[in-house]
Structures are given as C-alpha cells and as structure tokens.
Amino acid sequence: MSTLAEPAPRVGPLEWVLATDHKRVAARTFALAFVFFIASGVLALLMRSELAQPGLQIMSTDTYNQLFTMHGSGMVYLVVTPLAMALGLYFVPLQVGAADVAAPRLASLGFWLYAGGGLTMYSGFLTAGGAGKAGWTAFYPLSGEQASPGTGMDMWIVGVVCAVAGMLLVAAMILLTLIRHRAPQMSITRIPPFCWTMFFTCAMTVAAFPILIVAMGLLFADRHLGPVFDTPGGPATYQHLFWFYGHPVVYVMFFPFLGVVAEVVATFSRRRLFGYPALILGLFAFTGLSMTVWAHHMFATGQVNNQYYSLTSTTLAIPAGIEYFDVIATMIGGVILLRTSMLFALGFLGLFLIGGLTGIIIGSPPLDYHVHDTYFIVAHFHYTLFGGSLMGGFAAAYYWLPKATGFLLRESLGKLNFALLFVGVNLTFFPMFLLGYDGMQRRVADYSPDAGLTTNNMLATIGAFVIALGILTFIVNVVVSMRRREPAGDDPWQGQTLEWATTSPPPRLNFAALPPIRSYAPLLDLRERRGEGG
Amino acid sequence: MAPALETNRQDFQNLFSLYMVIGVAIGVLVIATIAFVVLRYRQREGRDPRRPETLLKVLEGTWVAAIAGIVVVLLVSTFTTEDRVDAVSGDPARTVRVTGFQWGWRFSYPGTGVAITGNSERSPTLVVPAGVDVRFEITSRDVIHSFWVPELRFKRDAFPDRVSDFDLVVDPGVTTTGHCAEFCGLGHDRMDFELVSMDPARFDGWLRHRERRVGATHAVGAA
Q1: Candidate from B75, B153, B159 with C-beta closest to A369
Q2: Sheet strand arrangement including B154-158
Q3: Is A121 a residue whose pLDDT tops 60?
Q4: What is chain A's mean pLDDT, rounded?
Q5: Which residue of chain A has the CA closest to B142?
Q6: Which residue of A has its CA nearest to B164?
Q7: pLDDT score at B89
Q8: Which residues on chain B are in Cβ contact (under 8 Å) with A233?
Q9: CB contact under 8 A, A370 and B184
Q10: What pLDDT is recorded for position B51?
Q11: A65, B185: Cβ pair inside 8 Å?
C-alpha cells in the first residue's frame, strides 16, 4: 500500500516549470498566487498608510486609485480564486484516488494563461498612465476609452481575460476529474466533503466565468472598435454581465475553504463529518441560489427588481446555516486537538460568521441604500474573504503543506501566525463597519478631518500592519521548517481521506495501491475496523 | 399642520435595529456554541468519543426551521419598509433635479430657473423644504455617480442618459454633508455637497429670492 509507493524523484528547475503533473502545476499556482498575495498585500499596506490620517501624505489620488484597483483585482483574480483552484488541482485527484487530473496539459495551459494574465495586469504600472484605475469591477462608462484612456486599462482587461480563462480551464479539468476519474469504488455518496465543495465551485466557475470573458471582450471592443455599452441601458447591462460572474465568484472563493475547514474540523475532532447528506444538499442549494443573486450589487441603481434579489440573497442564510450546523456538530462528542490548522478552521467559522451576518443586512435594499459603496461593504467582504477564505487557506496550508512537502510546519510559530492574523483581521476590518456607517465612502484617498473618521482609520491601519506581521510569521515558519525538515510521515494527523494513504509528497502517479473505499472517510473506516476508535 | 411624514432615516433605523438584534443574537449564539463545544471536548485521556446523532438531527431540523422563520420575518419587514422607501408620491411638494458630473453636482428646481452648481473645489448646497415629500430626479452627465446623504441613510446612483426618481422627507433643521458614493475617477473623494433643510415657508422665501437673482442675471444678460 502506501509504504510501497516510491518517493517523488527530485526534479530540476526546468522540469518543475514544464511538468504537467497536477501536483506540480498546483504547486506553481500556489507559489505564484502567494507572490501576487504579497504584492497585492503591499498595495493594501500603502493604501492603509495613506488613510491613517486625513490629508494626502504619501501619494497622489491618481496613484491611490491604481493601488486600490490593483489590490482588489490582484486579490480576486490572481490570489484567492487561483488559491482555491490550486487546492482543488492538488488534492481532488488525491482524494478521489486518481493518478492525475483529467487532461493535465490543459490544466497546465490554465496555469500559464493565469501567469501571463497576472503579469500583464501588473505590468500596467510600467505604462505612462499607470495601471488600471477603474476599480476591480471596471464599471462602464468609467472604464471606457473617454474616462480611462491609456494602455494600463487595456492591459488590465487583457490580464483579467487571461487569468480568468486560465482558472476556467483548471476548474473544468477538476470537474472532469471528479466526474470521470474517481477510483472505481468511489460512488457519489463516498466523495469526500472537500471534493464536493470543489465540484460545486467548478460548476459555478464553468457557468459564470465565461460571462466575464464576454464582458471584458465587449469592453475592449467598446474602447477600440466603437460603441457597445454607450446606450441608455449599456452601463446597467455591463453591471449585469459583470455581477453574473461577480457573485458566483464570491462563492468560488468560499466553498473550497469551507471544504477544507470541514475536513480539518473532522480530522482534529477525531470524528466523522456530521450530516454529510445535508451538507452536500446545502451546497447544492447554495450553488443554485448563487446564480440568482447577482443584482443585489445593484440595489442602489434603481434599475433592478430589488425585492427578487433580496429574496434570493436572504434565502442563502438557510444553506449557510446548514453548513455551520454540520461543521459545529462534527466536534460534538469528539476529541478536539487544537493544532494550528484547527485554530485557523475555528477562526474561519467565527470571522466568516460576521461576514455572513452582515451580508444578510446588506441583502436588504433599504439597509443597503445607506451602506452600499461604503466602508461597511469593504468590512463585510474582507470578513468573508480574509476572515473566511484566507483563514481557511491557512488552515489548508498547515494541514496539507506537510503532505505536499514531506515536512511539518512548526506549531509554535503557527500559533503565533494564527494569533497575529486573528487580532489583525479584527483590528483592521471591524472599524471599517463603523467608518462606512458613519459616512465614509469606498475608494477614497482622503477624508475630511471633521467627519469623525480619524480614530477608526488609524485603528484599521495599525491592524493592517499586524496582519503583515502575521504573514511574515508564516513565511518565517515555512523557511525555518524547511531547514529543519521534521518528517511528516504519510499521515501526521490521522487523516480520513485518501491523500493520507500515500507518501508525503505523493509519487508521480499518486498511489501504488488504494485502500478499500467504503465511505467518504475511508481511512477512518480502516482505523475503526482495526479498533483504534475514530 | 398635518402629522409628520415618516422620514427615510426613521424607516432605516427601525429596520436596521431589527436586523442588528437578530444578527447579534445569532452571532453570539453560534460563537458561544463553538466556544462551549471546543472547551467541552478538548482532548482528554481515555475519553470514548460518542456523538448523540439522533438528538443532533432533531436539533439541525429545528435550527433550519428557525432560520427559515427568521428569513421570512426579515423579508416581510424589508419588503414593507422598501415599499415605503421606494414609493414616489403622485403629488410631491417640490421637485429637485440632480445631475452628477466629473466632479460635482448640479441641483435645479424645475419651473423656477434656479440651479445651484458646485464642484470638488467648491461644494454646492442643496436646499430642500423640511417635513414634506421632495421628489428627486437624478441623472449623470458622464460616468456613474451616486448621491449619498449618510444623515438620511439613503443613496441612489446617477446613470448617464437615464433619469431615476425617488422621494425623500427631510427632518427640519438638517445641515449635513453628502458624498458621491460610486467611484467616478480622480475627483471622487472630493465630490461632496451640503444639504440644508428649511421649513417650507422659509424655503419658499429662499427660492423666490434665488429666482429674482436668476431673473436679474437674465435681465442683465439681455441688456
């Protein structure tokens, strides 16, 4: 079985770059997404430095506009979506007992499109007029040729198209793997929870991402060929196309991390996930609803049926409640080990909750009329994206990096990493709720010293640097652990799914032999049968 | 005098309080449950892990039903409030035409020739009668802007080539700052305006005064 698997052969740099093994393509994606994460995070630190006090201290408004555009675009298109896809690309084939992803060359092409797109988008900074500066949403007519002339904006559009198309390819291949390449014994009720979250993630990706590519193509045509959106209904049409991508992508950036958290909580409670069928059906409902809520981003336009979108958006609370119940109930009666990845999973539950509950508030049009396009929204989606997705991402890093590298990360540094991020996220983003409510609109480089916004802005800025310290701790942890190389072994956590039944790192074709698969937690079954408890 | 009309601010506050009470209650419940479960089931030597499956299934059903009930309550309150907030009167006491542009606002009072324009250097002042229905017709001259008055808890986007209507009732004695909330380029952060409410009689006086000044300007222009 796993002990028979040969360790991965050492590979040279060229092979590392050109290989099509799903694990190597995923590793490249992780590495690049992390680079873009640092870059986009540095932009955020610059923005927070500017906003620490009223007045313009360190940059011009024009620079600030480029920074927030590239921060948001970077994080959404180049960081969190690719991280979600990289997790799927690495662990879906392992969890379903497949030797590789379906059509690995296409998945590899997806990576290269993403890499090219990201570099193109960031290269906008090198052009005379600077990078894109119409926000990550690039609403028309602001993103049109007249209001935003210049190559930077064009490079932004091309970058978005490439990055999104790349991730679309990766998602399609993960979906195909899940449908066609599962081990023979893995019937659909034996698919592990993380794989289910990836299934729905990729389904949303395949449905929604092409629409953004179309919207970007039309925007490019409008800028260079002649009017496309320049009609009375054009600007609203652009927003519909954009948010038809833009809302599902929010769950593309959420589901995989929810899946990670479900697995981490089950593993570190030594229990089987509670309510598997309810959780999957809940995800199904979530996915269906996610395609119907997009215009809740447009309540303030006065051009959509607000009550319909309010209905579908508020209904999302029901599947979300199911997910929360199942994950929390998994811990009941368990034996909980507070390892670093478990701490991050718990952090995810607490922080995403704040993001989710405030999401219900802004799903109500009369309430959204006040807080839309303010820092309240900024706070809300950072609680979901940083408090949720990235906390889940760190849970995944501490849980799965040992599988991918063969060595363990330091627990002490990991706990410091968690504490700094947890404090930093709250210190940065909680004051933003108050800022938005008190009258601070989004996307401003400056605010009035008399508006009572100064203290909360200062707190948020301090918080941002605490977050930076937390990220630094993670980097130090990886470097230190890499030098110590404390071996992880095949299964350091008593994992429940198939990736723990092979070596760390797994061999080229993943498995020498597979254990029997009788449920969505095959390794837990084995332990239970051997009487080790579970 | 007729009974005071409900202002948007009051509507907002009532609905917001409901959402906050429910949101905070659920937030505290969930976080307290997580904390309790984690503390209760921290690793202990020799505990045999057991889970009350049936009890939990019943609890899950109850929890989902409770959320569904809350969703219904929230939606009904939202819809009732929104019907009031979005309603446009057939007979507004005054109409103001709002035009956003890069980077400023123009407020005009149809039928009077009075228009007040200001930009990011010198913000304009929007004067409205207090306690009565004021109709706003909002549009934009270039990109999308958004007319936001935090004090009134309301905003509406201004789209080019489109007019959007809404009514607001402003309390007496309001002097406050409004902003453009939709990112619109370089001057977005300074695209502010002042809003002042006057009781209707004083407002009429103010408007007549401005009208005479417009007339005078026109007369001078004609001469």
Answers
A1: B153
A2: B125-129, B193-198, B175-180, B145-149, B154-158
A3: yes
A4: 95
A5: A141
A6: A302
A7: 87
A8: 162
A9: no
A10: 82
A11: yes
**Do the beta carbons of residue B191 and residue B118 sit within 8 Å?**
no
Q: Which residue has the tokens 């470097």?
A: A479
Whether A205 contacts A110, CB under 8 Å = no
Residue of B nearest to A235 (CA): B159
Residue B41 to residue A318, Cβ atoms within 8 A? no
More confident residue, A183 or A16: A183
Inter-chain touch A444–B186, beta carbons under 8 Å: no
- Contact state of B43 with A336 under an 8 Å Cβ cutoff: yes
User: A191-200, A318-327, A422-431, B41-50: which has the minimum mean pLDDT?
Assistant: B41-50
Contacting residues of B for A240, CB less than 8 Å apart: none
CB contact under 8 A, B60 and A338: no
> Residue B216 has which token pair?
């005078």
Provide the CB-side half-sphere exposure for A488 (13 A, CA).
29
Instruction: Provide the 3-class DSSP secondary structure of residue A244.
Output: helix
Structure tokens at A40: 């986009």
SS3 B5: coil
Contact A315, A273 (CB under 8 A): no
**Closest residue to B156, CB basis, from A302, A332, A336:** A302
- pLDDT tens digit sequence for A129-147: 999 999 999 999 999 999 9
pLDDT of residue B119: 94
Give yes or no for a contact between A202 and A88, defined as CB atoms under 8 angstroms apart: yes
Condensed to tens digits (0 to 9), the pLDDT of residues A441-479 reads 999 999 999 999 999 999 999 999 999 999 999 999 999
What tokens appear for B221 in the block?
């222009």
Cα B88 to Cα B134: distance, rounded to the nearest angstrom = 9
B87's CB contacts (< 8 A; 6+ apart) are B167
pLDDT at A7 over 90: no
- A60 vs B: CB within 8 A: no
**Is A310–B157 a contact, with Cβ atoms under 8 angstroms apart?**
no
Token digits for A75? Answer: 């994080």
Contact A270 B49 (CB under 8 A): yes
Q: Which residues of chain B have pLDDT under 70?
A: 1-5, 44-49, 217-223
What pLDDT digit, counting tens, does each position of A9-59 carry?
Answer: 566 777 777 888 999 999 999 999 999 999 999 999 999 999 999 999 999
Q: CA-to-CA distance for B211 and B207, rounded, in angstroms?
A: 6
Q: What is the pLDDT of residue B215?
A: 77
Residues of chain B with Cβ-Cβ distance to A261 below 8 Å are none
| pLDDT recorded at residue A534 | 43
The shortest C-alpha distance from B204 to chain A (Å) reads: 29
Q: What DSSP string describes A17-76? A: HH---HHHHHHHHHHHHHHHHHHHHHHHHHHHHHHTSSS--SS-HHHHHHHHHHHHHIII
Q: How far is A438 from chain B (nearest CA, A)?
A: 7
- B117–chain A nearest CA distance, Å: 21
pLDDT at A11: 66
What size, in residues, is chain A?
A: 534
CA angle A519, A523, A524 (to 5 degrees): 75
- Interface A:B, Cβ pairs < 8 A: 226
Which residue's structure tokens are 């301090």?
A: A462
What is the distance in angstroms between the Cα of A326 and the nearest Cα belonging to chain B? Answer: 8
Contacts of A285 in chain B (CB under 8 A): none
With beta carbons less than 8 A apart as the criterion, state whether B160 and B140 touch.
Answer: yes
Residue of A nearest to B81 (CA): A366
**ipTM value for the complex:** 0.94
Give the residue from A360, A374, A369, A236 showing the smallest Cα distance to B86.
A369
Provide the angle, in degrees to the nearest 10, between the axes of the packed helices A317-331 and A255-268: 20
